[in-house]
Amino acid sequence: MTVDALSAPTLRIGEQFEDAPQQRAAVTFGMWVFIASEVMFFGALFFGYAIARIHAPDAFAAASRHTNIVIGTANTAVLLTSSFFMALAVRSIAAGAGRRTTWLLVVTAGLGLVFTALKLTEYAIDFREHLVPLVNFAFDPQYLPGAVFYGLYFVTTGLHLVHLTVGIVLVLVLAVQVRHANPNALRDRVEVAGLYWHFVDIVWIFLYPCLYLISRA
């Protein structure tokens, strides 16, 4: 057992809960309900993507070939690595290791910022190549439905980036709190943040093949 764990107080229990297990179960359940609502939201977008692709497979394949496979693949590796560090942070705070948890959370957020920087770079490339619908879209006329592909591309990846930004802020705030507080008092928050972070990761795992690999298989 670590020194942090020995010196940490018991978890603060809200007045509405009888004990720590009940509070942890309620917090975790609340996050799962939120994730379920987000799954339905993104599910509708994936459903729209599937319908559009069925109706215009050639246009979607042609448009997909213009996505930046190098950046997309690099971002996939970055996000998977960040989830690994997030899982280590959850495990670390469960062991009461506050200092180690702080650094693991900082690394997680840092990798999230790397993903963000790469994605914004990719957006700049897309704009320079005239692939932004309603702004400067110039694609082969015979593949006009490619505008639908890129519309979905920017909507889905943009929403994913918004969710990731929220996750980065959340993780950085937790890193500061864990650094200046006893880890046992923040265990539930870090675990819930971990669930959210992994959800954002999973969404990208579905986006990556749909947007980058459909014409390269």
In a nutshell, what does this entry contain?
By secondary structure, this protein is mainly α. It is built from seven helices and no strands.
Give the number of helices: 7
Form type: elongated
Structural class: mainly alpha
**How do the SSEs run, as a string of H and E?**
HHHHHHH
| Alpha carbon gap, first and last residue | 49 Å
CATH architecture: Up-down Bundle
Rg calc? 21 Å
CATH class: Mainly Alpha
Looking at this structure, what is the CATH superfamily?
Answer: Cytochrome c oxidase, subunit III, four-helix bundle
The pLDDT mean sits at: 85
Number of strands: 0
In total, the number of domains comes to 1
The largest pleated sheet is described as:
none
Strand content: under 5%
Helix content: over 70%
Low-pLDDT regions = 1-10
CATH topology: Four Helix Bundle (Hemerythrin (Met), subunit A)
How would you explain this protein's 3D organization?
This protein is mainly alpha-helical and 217 residues long. The protein has one domain (18-213): Four Helix Bundle (Hemerythrin (Met), subunit A), CATH 1.20.120.80. The chain is built from seven helices and no strands. The radius of gyration is 21 Å and the shape is elongated. It has helices at residues 3-7, 20-55, 57-64, 69-94, 98-128, 146-180, 187-213. The longest helix is centred in the N-terminal third of the chain and has 36 residues, at 20-55. The chain is 77% helix and 0% strand. Helix 6 runs antiparallel to helix 7 (187-213).
Task: List strands and helices in order, with pairings.
Blueprint: H1 3-7, H2 20-55, H3 57-64, H4 69-94, H5 98-128, H6 146-180, H7 187-213
Helix pairs in contact: 2-3, 2-6, 2-7, 3-6, 4-5, 4-7, 5-6, 6-7
